[in-house]
Write a structure and sequence with these properties.
heterodimer, A: alpha+beta, five-stranded mixed sheet, globular, B: alpha/beta, Ribosomal Protein S5, domain 2, five-stranded parallel sheet, 18 strands, 17% strand
Chain lengths: 125, 513
């Protein structure tokens, strides 16, 4: 891998997936992408579908990881969620679902493990 | 996943029914309020969300749409927080919707889920009674004023949780009751007493006549003569409020948001004395959605304008409609509202800009044209609406130093009350007319017949003082009041003569003084 940042991002998403799976979520899709951007993880638990944004950092030099989810980023995620819904609305599997935006904020340690992991449910609307 | 409940929107003095509908739809979570909400109503989203979560309920993860119907009347203020929160909880099945539609609710939510006071609760209760709701849920801080309305159960809630528990039948709430009669009797002692005023026999008499007939009064005199002192004692000689009057006053103050927390009936006649720098909007009422001004806050009481010529011309001219009609209509681009404004106008001014004209012990240095300009600031049409204008001369040293205690207010008030009773017995059949000053031209004609001698006196008076038709009517009304004070059925020459003497400084500056 060329860019170490991308590697850290991938590592963070891996940790987030593990966390979600351990909490009983089914991962529906990862890195759902269109020309507008990307949703890191789409996961489901019961009748809640969560659109999850993952932020991983090594230190707090630039603040808490979740602070990087700016209003612009949120608008982008909302737009992406709408696009995903358009593509999947006909699927009866999601008939009674609620939709939610989550943020998972992770501090990475030297070994590439998570020294802290914070799952914010319903982080924004 | 639809729920509805009722509330009311206060516009002017009245409340019109509003239906609060909440729909929980599929889709990305969102919360929108439609139905012509103003900024405070749109902000209610944030309060409702925090109020619900902090009351340990779930804020539904749905696309929430709140509609305030009918959509063509403007909704303002935070009073919709409570009904929005309740219908939202019902739509998300955290509250059985069975009893919801039978009640109406109003209240501002605090972020911790407690219910805060709102304006116009008395009008809301009237509205809920008219809409035949089973009860009205209100903030505890407003419940006592709303309970003045009979025929509707007012239920006081402190928190959103209490409202929910009541509507789901888990909490019994006793309707709030107030005893209007005892509140009315328990008013203050009427403020300062007329017994404190030294000398000023003519002014005391004029004050009594004005109080008896509800006439407007102008006092002209140098500073320190006691004009303000006299005016402040007027409420103490006015007849006691009836329950209906007290409720009307309370309603104005409720709409204006000027009732103290937990306050119920206002049992004293208002006395308002705005400073002369007041704007016309402050006096008549105003704002984007107009709120009551000083003329309405003085409803059924006294509006005292000290230094009358110093008020802006615009402000003084706005007094003309309320003085004539007893109400004031304020039109803005959004709405037009009418507030009651049946007050007694008491005005005071100096005779000239320096204030010493008419004071024998000091010299007035004002050139005549300045005196004329000063008095000219009070327009003819406004002067026409003042029934009694008197001079209040400075007190002589002798009067200042030794004055026996004068007649107390209570004695004067007894005469005034008796006189008012005579008037209402005579005017009984005319709706909305309680005292001589309010008589229409037709009523004046019927009740103010003059003897031939008196007729002649009036004619010469009209010539001498070049009086307008309106002034002529007003002289007759004042004469009627004086006759009533005298216990006389007919208006005698003496009564008329006194009434004419009160117009002596009508065209002040040019003659007189």
């Amino acid at each position: 891998m060329g860019d170490p940042r991308r590697g850290r991002g991938r590592r963070g998403e891996q940790l987030a997936r593990d966390h979600l799976a351990s909490r009983g979520y089914d991962i529906i899709q990862t890195n759902f992408r269109s020309r507008y951007g990307e949703i890191d993880i789409i996961a489901r638990k019961g009748d809640v579908v969560a659109f999850v944004e993952v932020k991983a950092r090594r230190d707090r030099f630039f603040g808490e990881p979740f602070e990087a989810v700016s209003p612009r980023k949120r608008a982008q995620i909302r737009r992406m969620a709408r696009a995903w819904l358009m593509a999947n609305a006909h699927d009866p599997a999601y008939g009674d679902c609620c939709f939610r935006f989550d943020v998972i904020s992770i501090m990475l340690d030297e070994a590439g493990g998570a020294s802290e992991l914070d799952h914010m449910e319903d982080a924004f609307r | 996943m639809l729920a509805r409940m009722f509330s009311h929107a206060v516009l002017g003095m009245d409340a019109s029914p509003v239906e609060v509908e909440t729909d929980l739809g599929r889709g990305l979570p969102a919360f929108s309020i439609v139905g012509l909400p103003d900024a405070a109503v749109r902000e209610s989203r944030e309060r409702v969300r925090a109020g619900i979560t902090n009351s340990e309920y779930d804020f539904p993860l749905r696309r929430i749409t709140v509609n305030l119907a009918p959509a063509d009347i403007r909704k303002e203020g935070p009073a919709f927080d409570l009904p929005i929160a309740l219908s939202l909880l019902a739509a998300s099945e955290q509250l059985p919707s069975g009893r919801l539609a039978e009640y109406s609710a109003a209240g501002e939510l605090s972020l911790d889920g407690s219910v805060r006071r709102i304006n116009g609760a008395l009008s809301l209760a009237e509205g809920a009674r008219r809409s035949r709701h089973r009860g009205l849920l209100l903030p505890a801080a407003n419940a006592r004023e709303a309970a003045l309305v009979e025929g509707i159960d007012v239920l006081a809630v402190q928190t959103l949780g209490q409202a929910v528990d009541f509507l789901s039948g888990e909490l019994a709430l006793e309707p709030v009751r107030v005893d209007a009669e005892s509140l009315l009797a328990g008013g203050s002692d009427g403020g300062p007493d007329l017994a404190d005023v030294k000398g000023q026999e003519q002014a005391r008499r004029a004050l009594e006549v004005c109080a008896a007939g509800g006439h407007n009064l102008l006092m002209v005199g140098p500073p320190g003569a006691g004009k303000t002192m006299l005016a402040r004692r007027l409420p103490s000689i006015l007849p006691a409020l009836t329950k209906r009057e007290a409720v009307e006053i309370t309603r104005v103050y409720s709409v204006a948001g000027m009732l103290a927390e937990g306050m119920s009936l206002l049992a004293d006649r208002p006395f308002r004395s705005p400073h002369h720098t007041i704007s016309h909007a402050g006096l008549a009422g105003g704002g984007r959605v107009p709120r009551p001004g000083e003329v309405s806050l003085a409803h059924l009481g006294v509006l005292f304008l000290d230094e009358l010529p110093e008020f802006s011309r615009l402000a003084l001219e706005t007094l003309r409609q309320p003085l004539e009609d007893g109400e004031v209509t304020i039109s803005r681009s959004l709405v037009s509202v009418t507030y009651p404004a049946r007050f007694m106008l008491v005005a005071a001014m100096n005779a000239c800009p320096c204030g010493h004209l008419g004071d024998r012990s000091r010299r007035c240095l004002c050139p005549p044209e300045k005196v004329n300009a000063y008095r000219g600031r009070v327009s003819g049409p406004l002067m026409d609406r003042i029934d009694v204008a008197i001079e209040v001369p400075p007190l002589a040293k002798r009067q200042l130093l030794s004055s026996p205690r004068r007649e107390p207010s209570s004695a004067v008030a007894d005469r005034v009350t008796a006189c008012r009773q005579r008037q209402s017995a005579r005017l009984g059949e005319a709706p909305g007319v309680f005292c001589n000053a309010q008589m229409s031209n037709r009523l004046t004609e019927r009740h103010c017949r003059l003897e031939a001698d008196a007729e002649k006196l009036l004619e010469s008076g009209i010539d001498r003082l070049s009086l307008s038709a309106r002034a002529h009517q007003r002289i007759l009304k004042v004469a009627r009041t004086i006759a009533d004070l005298d216990g006389s059925r007919d208006i005698l020459t003496a009564h008329l003569a006194e009434a004419i003497s009160y117009r002596g400084i009508d065209r002040t500056g040019r003659d007189g003084l």
